[in-house]
Amino acid sequence: MQVAGGKLFATCHLLPVIFHLPPSGNSGKLGSVKIIKQHVEGQLFEVNGRHTLLLTNAAPETQTAASLYLCFALVVQGPEEHILPAIIKDDWGGERRGLDVYAWLEEEGHRFPRTEVFGFDPDGTETQCFVRALELYMRLPCYAYTNRQSPVADGRLLTAVYLPDETVTTPQKIERPSCLPAPLANAAVRWWLIPPATENFDFL
After folding, report:
1. Using CA of residue 145, residue 151, residue 152, residue 156, what is the dihedral sign?
2. Average model confidence (pLDDT) for the chain?
3. Mean pLDDT on 16-35
4. Exposed (0-12), middle (13-18) or buried (19+): which is 45, by Cβ within 10 Å?
5. What is the spatial distance between Cα 72 and Cα 184, in angstroms, rounded to a whole number?
6. pLDDT surpasses 80 at 17
7. Which residues of 117-150 are buried (b: 16+ CB within 10 A; e: fewer)?
8. What Å distances lie between residue 60 and 63, 68, 99, 159, CA to CA?
């Protein structure tokens, strides 16, 4: 599968406990800590009131004019509220940050239900909950940002991701592509292969 710009993708019960903290700022519990983001390249579109991403590079090595930043929300059981994670702390006070948090939660979260997740609601309000309150095995809602330093509330919830592919002549809906790096491959979006020259995205 050939991607525009020369990049190649291989073919490939306890009740939830959530604490909402005061609005973030330097006096907030998280201070200047940022939500976890994955760097990609592409272009954002708004189609029929829904936000979508044309993904041109899933793993850029440097920041460019096409850089975008994706944050993958954790979902709370029951109300299915979204938490954009920044840090997790285990029972012994050890901290985990960065994209490895997602793999750890999927593989080990069930063993450590009292691990705490610190992060933000989509509106930017600081929040925290125990891992036992999370849906650990569902796909992850994906919020896109145009800048690494963008405020949390600026995130756009994506509904679809387009993958340019020279082997297709019309848009084709596909299953989630496992060849993409995690946690992007687990995003709760619809996936489409599209011809690289596609300009009209009304097929959604």
Report:
1. negative
2. 87
3. 58
4. middle
5. 8
6. no
7. bbbbbbebebbbbbbbbbebeeebbbbbbeeeeb
8. 7, 10, 15, 22
Which whole-number Å values give the CA distances from 19 to 22, 63, 68, 78, 124, in the listed order?
10, 35, 30, 15, 14
Any idea what the Cα angle at residue 190 is, between residues 154 and 103, rounded to 5°? Answer: 75
C-alpha span between 120 and 23 (Å, rounded): 9
Q: How far is CA 163 from CA 7, 60, 76, 139, in A?
A: 11, 15, 29, 19
**Rg, Å, the chain Cα set:** 18
Give dist(CA 1, CA 3) in Å, integer.
Answer: 6
Sign for the pseudo-dihedral over CA of 69, 126, 18, 119: positive
Higher pLDDT pick, 59 / 30: 59
pLDDT average, residue stretch 110-117: 95
The pLDDT value given to residue 22: 46
152-166: per-residue pLDDT in tens?
999 999 999 999 999
